[in-house]
Structure formats: C-alpha cells, structure tokens
Amino acid sequence: MILKRLPEDFKVTEIPKIKEDENGKFSVYLLKKKNIDTLGAIQIIKRRFSLKHVEVAGLKDKHTESEQYVSIPGRNGVKYNVKERNFKLEFKFYSNEPLHIGFLEGNKFEIVVRKIQASYIKILEKRSSLIERGIPNYYGEQRFGSYSSKSGFLGKALIKKEHEKALKIYLTHFIRSENKDKKELKKFVESNWKSWDDILKYLKRNKIKNSLVEKIIRHLKKSNNDFYSAVKIIPERYLRLYIEAYQSFIWNEITRRIIEKIADKKFSLSYIAGILFFYDEINEENLNLLNGASFNFKEIKAKKELRDFIEKTKKEVFMNESINEKILVRPFFNAGVLRKRKILIFPKEFSVVDVSDDELYRGFKKARLRFNLPSGSYATMVTRLLFKH
Question: Are residue 264 and residue 328 in the same domain, yes or no?
Fold first, then answer.
C-alpha cells in the first residue's frame, strides 16, 4: 500500500472548537493549503502582513490537502484575506478567544490508499470490523522528524543538558526529502565539526543563505564553543517541538508494551523510532481495561490493575532510556509535559467509501476511506491497523 502519493490523496478538515462571537476581539480565518506545511504557510502570512501573532489549533504536514482555522488578534475582517500558490486564507468570523494547539474537537479525514493487491480487498472488508474495537493511539511518524537514527533524539539531548550533542543533531541531521544543497551543507558541517572558519567559508563559497545556521556558527566561533548559548539561538517553538517529540516517543514505548502484554493476538510494525504493537484479538475484559484509560508522565487515569502496570512499565522505559521522571517533566525552553493521552481511540463514521482500479499503479486497486478522529490522533494508525503496513 502507498499513502500520500498525491496531496489530494490525504484530505484533512478540522472540526473546530472555537465559537463565533460577533463582538469578539479575534479574527478567525479558514486556511486551505496544499504542498506546504502549516508552519510554512503561517511564516509567509506573518511576513506579508508584518504580524507577530498568528495562532492555529493543529499542525498539518506538507503532503496533505487540508482545511484548518487561524486566529489573528484584532477585528480585521477581510484585511488578511490572501491567495498564494499553495494556500488561501479567507476570513470567516470573529471570536472572543484565540486558537491554540489542541483547541479542536477533532479532524475529518478522507484518505486514498493506493497500490493495493486486488486479493486484499476482501481482507480489507473483514479487517474494517476491527475499527470498532479501538486502535492504539500512538504518535505518528511525522512527530519524529528530529530523530536521528545515528545520534538519537535531539529532544533527549536537550533534557539531559547535552548541548553540544543537541546542536550537532540540529546542524547535521537531515531527512531524505530535503534538497541536495541542505544535505551537502549538513554533511560538510558534520565532517568539519568545530572548524567554524571552514564552515563559514563553505557558506560563502556556495552562496548559501541560511542566516540561522550562520548566526549559530559565528556565535560558536566567537564564544569559544559555548554550546548552551548557541542552542538558545534556535527559536523556542522548535526547541519545544524537539522535546515534545522525545516525550511522545516515551509515551509510545510505554503504550506498545501495554498492548504487547494485554492483547491476545497482536502484530508489530516498525516506525522511524522503533516498533509499535497492534492487536487483532483482545478479550472483552482487557478491552474494557484499556477503554477510557489515559496517562502522561505525571498522572495515570485507569483501573487499579492497569494503573499499576502502567506505572511499572513507565519505570522500565525510563531505566532503558537512562532518564528519570524528574528530568522528563522539568520545564525546558517553555516545553511542558505532554497532556494526558488516551491509550485507545475509536474512529467515528468510518467507511470504505469506494474501491476502484488505481490509475497510477496498473493492475492494483485503490480504496477511499473516511473517518473522524479526536484532536491529536493520527490517521496513519487507522491505515496501519487495516493494512498491517
């Protein structure tokens, strides 16, 4: 199976929580975007209109076609309506409160899954019944872009105050989709670590305009390798995301051990930072234990039997990671602790809308799925359960 072959194959529409108030002090806009991530679109809007505050309730990645809401302080109406190549911003209403991350009822998804073997269609129909028995609410791949298979989590280095390691991951880690120039720069920085003059010459010689990288390198040269102050040059919103990514990994590690222990019949799938367990069969007693249970690193909401197991599992994961609860929940760069998260999610209004020949992959089928998920949950967990992929 293949996901996100085209941006329109993965459509996301926010179900807003924000309420209309005709006397409100915030202007609320609908952002329709394609081939650009939310942060990229917001940066363009800020620059174009010289804005300091543009808030959203969720972050949507580049490889989707999405509709989400944006709030800007003030009663500006259509003042900030704009149509760019990859997005459109359109005024909708006034509200008496701003948006913030997580301030959503949920998201509606319409997903086209491609390159399906024709023989799998009957299996898909059968596996669709599993949706009613819940899906582990793991954080998805897109949460872990800052993870380096060679050096680990940037966020872990930050919370352990390993500032040089954190900065080295930041300046040298790249993902496959990055362009060639960025990859070559990062490779050069890695092979010439601490040779700051050589790196500055490389930037100049190749006419690379990356003011943040140059600022960090110049600071390291001037400060005689003060890595802590160099880390602080990175915008706080990114540092916060890196730390939350590592916290999300820890949450996944605890949850996959719970599923592995409690399910009657399970299977594992790999992801960028490890493995995840899903279940094909689970008895009613254990399903009832998991249903409604939630936890973060400060609080566990579950029946005593499960609560004790989560606490034990949490300590095991901390030990394996050579961390402790104290440093994990300590505030860094305005990053707090993840909110309490349910172990299982139950997609609403799930349907296989249609199955047809795949025009992009001859001899294969494609299936169109529709469903709703609560805020913060990942649609890819639904497809992973259905296709074991």
Answer: yes
